[in-house]
Amino acid sequence: MGKTIVEHTGGMAFVGKSASGHDVHMDAGEASGGADSAARPVEVLLSSLGGCTGMDVVSVLRKMKTEPASLEIEIRDERAEHYPKAITKLHLIYRVTGDVPKDNLIKAVDLSLAKYCPIANSLNGVAEISYDVEIRSG
Questions:
Q1: pLDDT in tens, 98-127
Q2: Non-local CB neighbours of 53 within 8 Å, separated by 6+ positions
Q3: Count of domains in the chain?
Q4: pTM score, whole prediction
Q5: Structural contact between residues 92 and 119, judged by C-beta atoms closer than 8 angstroms
Q6: Are residue 45 and residue 23 in the same domain, yes or no?
C-alpha cells in the first residue's frame, strides 16, 4: 500500500509528500482565501491523469518501435453545476509529432485508458472519458 501525506502549510496552501520523496504543492486562488502560489487540487489530478496515460503511451509506442518525437495531451473537463462539482466528462486529445502510425497510437491510448493507467481507471465510471488523436509530421 502506498502512502502520501498532505500537510497544511498556511492559508489555503498544502504540500503533498509522496512515497517517492517528491513534493506536490497546491493552493487556492485569492478569491478562495489562498495566495495563488500553486496549482489547484483538481488541476493536479488532471495533470496526473495526463502524465499517467502519457507515460503509458510513450512506453507502448517504444515497444512498437514507433516512439514519437513529442507528445502533448490536452485534457478538457466538464463538471457538475452543483457541489461537489464533480468531474463528469473528460476528453483527452493526444497530439503526437513524428513518424507514428495512427493505428499504433490508437492502440497505445486504448491500452493505457483501459488497462494500464490507474488514474484513468479510477476515474472511469465516475466520469465519461473520450479521446481523439492528432499526428503531426516533423
A1: 999 999 999 999 999 999 999 999 999 899
A2: 73, 92, 109, 112, 113, 117, 119, 120
A3: 2
A4: 0.94
A5: no
A6: no
